[in-house]
Design brief:
656 residues, Dihydrodipicolinate Reductase, domain 2, alpha/beta, eight-stranded parallel beta sheet, 22 helices, Putative dehydrogenase, nucleotide binding, Rossmann fold, NADP, elongated, 36% helix, TIM Barrel, 18% strand, 3 domains
């Protein structure tokens, strides 16, 4: 689709630079500064103009991109709409809410698209923060603090006059306002506001609008947010465009409401009573491009459904800024028209089986996060308490918990899942496993029901055999973590003098018993752990319900690529336990070398190696920094050559 750029300043060059990677093309450039228009137009082989009416007559471009100065936005948009052109405007849509409403009406009556910057709700950090809200972790959000420290525009902009004329609301506050309206819907009332004229005496260029504004906003959906917008506070101050939201159950921190790129610590969550934990990305992310919004608007035009949601939100944001100015002038609480804007649907985080009847078959496929968290208490030859580390994992964003009755801490996990600040049940995939001593049907059904009661959930997302072989039953495995170690081991490792007493329960029978757990609705899918290919084939050949998950030990010393490929061919997801604990693995030079190229530790390289191969690793850590860095590694993808180098570490005779 052809575009006509109106305005050829610095921001126009940013938009134009991204056009080559889109289906859009620059058909003309218009700017009052003829030399500036001609320079940009020559780079893209299109004509330039100094008069908008002439440009609209000569350039048959359906989409006008309004990149003029703040005060000119409204008139340029009006002219373009009058010429029956779709418009995407830089922020703000206008400086007056009534004018913004007129433009919105004009676009609607002519069935034209109207989009308005910023598109920051689609930024990678902003979407990650939105998922925290969608998880329900903060609980009901009642209070927020938003900053827009634009800084001294005379220091960082070569043409600051447009900024100095309008103040920090219409250029800076629009970022947090746009994001907050996207998440919570319309602002209902500006409760109170104040405006200051702080500015250095030495500056010769002086603002004609207040340089520092503070306001308290009441959103119709409930939150009260204090907004600070400033030209005086430096943009390199501690809070640039930071946002902090406080709910009944926890707090969410976003480093930059207007950020186009992301970093590990740009989103953080802290449940009540706990420190903030970074919430890193778990999949590859890309920065937002200026042209992304243009492409989406162009797609709506091509589909015959020209979008105006951005225009409605942009008009409402202008109305909020107007109301803040009125409140600062002493008008008291000021109501804000919504112009039809509504909150956006938050990006979903559901990872549980997507089914309609409570069951799903392995071949149907299931949604799993790229990485999970192992909850075993056994580490380095001893049992350790895992409550804090599991809480940190949930706070950081892990959404698959690997549990088992052998671990003896299902009740602790259940307490965490039910605690304020934990994600909604729909956002967490809970994998459980029955121990070898409970392979008989009555014992297995009792074990599954008992585990669910301890976890406080209605059904497992997947429940499986911890191991394929059966051992003698020595009693229920209830809250092993609370029992003496001698008692724990007597129940879980039956026998004398190191000789395990087995039970006469075949794999086929054990799987049939597991299917009974499935039939009773105690699990939505089935899993098999620590199986060989031949054992898995036995399950597939004799079983009625296919496994959705196979969990195996997998790391570069023991890659088991044949079994992984077989599972993938059969539509079975592979989960890798013990991915980092093989002795000597993390000292391998090849892992360190690859890690340097990706800013990963050797452990991170191993996790990325698994994820790149479509395997879900479930590392287990008790260190907060490792918990976060392991999760961060899941966002990395390795090249085929790097995968091959890591595969070369395979040790055919590896044993623990």
């Amino acid at each position: 689709m052809d575009c006509l750029f109106v305005g050829a300043g610095a921001i126009a060059s940013e938009y134009a630079a991204g056009l080559s990677s889109t289906s859009l093309s620059l058909a003309g450039v218009c700017d009052l500064d003829g030399e500036r228009a001609a320079a940009l137009a020559s780079e893209h082989g299109c004509p330039s103009f100094t008069d908008l009416e002439t440009a609209l007559e000569r350039v048959d471009a359906p989409l006008v991109v309004n990149l003029t100065s703040h005060a000119a936005h409204a008139e340029v948009t009006r002219t373009a709409l009058a010429a029956d052109r779709h418009v995407y405007s830089q922020k703000p849509l206008a400086l007056d809410a009534d004018v913004a409403g007129e433009l919105l009406t004009m676009a609607r009556e002519r069935d034209l698209a109207l989009g308005v910057a910023p598109e920051n709700p689609n930024g990678p950090s902003q979407r990650r923060a939105a998922r925290v809200l969608d998880d329900g972790r903060p609980g009901t959000v009642r209070l927020g603090y938003a900053h827009a420290h634009v800084g001294r525009v005379t220091d960082w902009h070569d043409r600051p006059d447009s900024f100095l004329a309008i103040g920090p609301l219409y250029d800076g506050a629009v970022y947090p306002l746009t994001l907050l309206v996207s998440w919570f819907g319309a602002v209902e009332t500006v409760r109170i506001a104040d405006a200051l004229d702080s500015w250095p005496d030495r500056e010769s260029r002086r603002p004609s609008a207040p340089t520092h504004v503070e306001a308290t906003l009441s959103f119709r959906s409930g939150p009260i947010v204090r907004l600070t917008a400033s030209f005086y506070a430096p943009h390199r101050s501690r809070e640039f465009y930071g946002l902090e939201l406080h709910g009944d159950d926890g707090s969410l921190y976003l480093h930059g409401t207007g950020a186009m790129e992301t970093a590990v610590d740009h989103v953080q969550f802290g449940r009540v009573g706990r420190e903030y934990t970074p919430v890193p990305p778990q999949s590859p992310t890309s920065p937002v491009e200026y042209t992304d919004a243009l492409e989406r608007l162009a797609e709506s035009i091509a589909d015959g459904t020209p979008a105006r949601a951005g225009g409605r939100r942009g008009a409402h944001v202008v109305a909020v800024c107007n109301a803040i100015e009125d409140a600062a002038d002493g008008s008291g609480p000021v109501d804000v028209p919504d112009y039809g804007t509504t909150r956006d649907r938050l990006p979903g985080t559901g990872v549980r089986p997507d089914d309609t009847d409570g069951h799903t078959n392995g071949r149907d496929g299931i949604r799993l996060p790229s990485i999970g968290f192992g909850c075993s208490r056994y580490r380095d030859g001893e049992y350790v308490e895992r409550r804090d580390s599991i809480a940190t994992a949930l706070d950081a964003g892990y959404r698959l918990l690997d549990s088992a009755e052998l671990y003896g801490n299902e009740h602790r996990i259940g307490e965490l899942l039910a605690a304020p600040g934990s994600p909604n049940r729909e956002a967490v995939f809970v994998l459980g496993k029955v121990w070898r001593t409970n392979h008989r049907r009555e014992h297995m059904l009792e074990a599954a029901a008992g585990s669910l009661a301890e976890l406080g959930i209605d059904a497992f997302d997947s429940y499986g055999l911890h191991w394929p072989d059966a051992w003698a039953h020595r009693g229920p495995l209830e809250r092993l973590a609370d029992q003496p170690i001698e008692r724990q081991e007597a129940l879980t490792f039956p026998g004398d003098d190191g000789n395990i007493e087995t039970a006469d329960v075949s794999l086929e029978t054990a799987w049939e018993n597991l299917e009974a757990v499935y039939d009773k609705g105690l699990t939505r899918t089935l899993a098999a752990s620590n199986v060989s290919r031949s054992e898995l084939e036995t399950i597939l050949e004799t079983g009625r319900v296919r496994p959705a998950i196979v969990q195996i030990e997998r790391h570069p010393y023991l890659p088991r690529n044949d079994l992984v490929s077989f599972c993938h061919d059969e539509g079975i997801r592979v989960v890798a336990h013990s991915p980092l604990s093989a002795p000597g693995l993390l000292e391998e030079p090849v892992l360190e070398a690859i890690g340097e190229a990706h800013d990963l530790s050797p452990a991170g390289v191993v996790l990325a190696w698994n994820v790149t191969r479509g395997v879900v690793p479930i590392p287990s850590s008790t260190t907060d920094t490792h918990i976060v860095s392991n999760l961060t590694a899941a966002a990395q993808r390795l090249s085929p050559e790097e995968i091959k180098r890591i595969d070369s570490l395979r040790q055919p005779d590896f044993e623990r």
